[in-house]
Each structure stands twice: as structure tokens, then as C-alpha cells.
Amino acid sequence: MAEVTPKTSAPKKTTARQTKADINAKAGGKAEPEKTAPKKSPAKPAAVKKTPVLQAPVEKMPVEKRIVDGEQRYRMIAEAAYFRAERCDFKSDPVRDWIEAERDIAILLGEDE
User: Fold this and answer.
1) pLDDT > 90: percent of the chain
2) Contact 106, 62 (CB under 8 A)
3) Nearest by Cα to 68 from 97, 112, 111
4) What pLDDT digit, counting tens, does each position of 83-99 carry?
5) CA atoms lying within 13 Å on the CB side of residue 66
6) Would you list the domain boundaries of the chain?
7) How far, CA to CA in Å, does 1 sit from each of 4, 10, 25, 81?
8) Angle formed by the axes of helices 94-109 and 70-87, to 10°?
9) Is the Cβ–Cβ distance between 98 and 77 less than 8 Å?
């Protein structure tokens, strides 16, 4: 006849809901009172420093003049007008997009003073 050895039980895993007191009580030990952190009052938000708002409009800011030839300037305006139209899903007036793009490029290049 084969010998039978008694099986030992594996230690049980604790779940997130079990506390130290529950585990000690099951093990036959003295239950310790559970320690909880004192409740803190809600913190007041720190005062946010307001940065001064730029007073001068972008058009009036001093800009260093840049020199580009006519073909480069034309391409820059065309690209700017395209992106303006794309923002409106190409439902805007192309002439208005071109004029506003010309103004933006003139400001960028320092020509509009």
C-alpha cells in the first residue's frame, strides 16, 4: 500500500478589502486597530500671477526687415492664402484670403510700416 503524506495548505492571499485586523483575527492573533490618515481640509488654490498682456498689436511691433525677391514673396503669399482657405474648408472668398495673406507676409517681412 502507498504511503499517504498529509498536504499542507498554502498561505492564502489577501484581497484588497482585507485589513490587517481581519488577517490577524483569522490567524488567531490580537486584532490591532486600523490606522487611518487624518483628513485634510481641501487646499486653497495658489494665487496665479497674471502676466502682463502685450499692449501693442502685432502689426505695430518692431520687425527687422527681411529681403526676398519677388518670386519668393509671391510663393509665400500663395502658400499663406492656401492655408487660410484650407482652415475654412475652401468655402471662403479666395480674393479676401489672398489680400489677408499679402498683409500677413508684408508684416512678416517688415514691409508694412
Assistant:
1) 34
2) no
3) 111
4) 999 999 999 999 999 99
5) 11
6) 69-109
7) 9, 27, 41, 96
8) 130
9) yes
C-alpha cell at 109: 517681412
* Cell (9 digits) for 48: 496665479
Cβ burial of 82 (10 Å; 0-12, 13-18, 19+) is: middle
Amino acid at 58: V
28: left (phi over 0), alpha (psi -120 to 50) or beta: left
Helix (H) or strand (E) holding 106: helix 94-109
Contact call for residues 40 and 83 (beta carbons, < 8 A) = no
C-alpha cell of 100? Answer: 489677408
Q: Are 79 and 98 in contact (CB under 8 A)?
A: no
**What CA–CA distance (Å, rounded) separates 84 from 75?**
14
Residue with cell 486597530: 33
pTM, two decimal places: 0.43
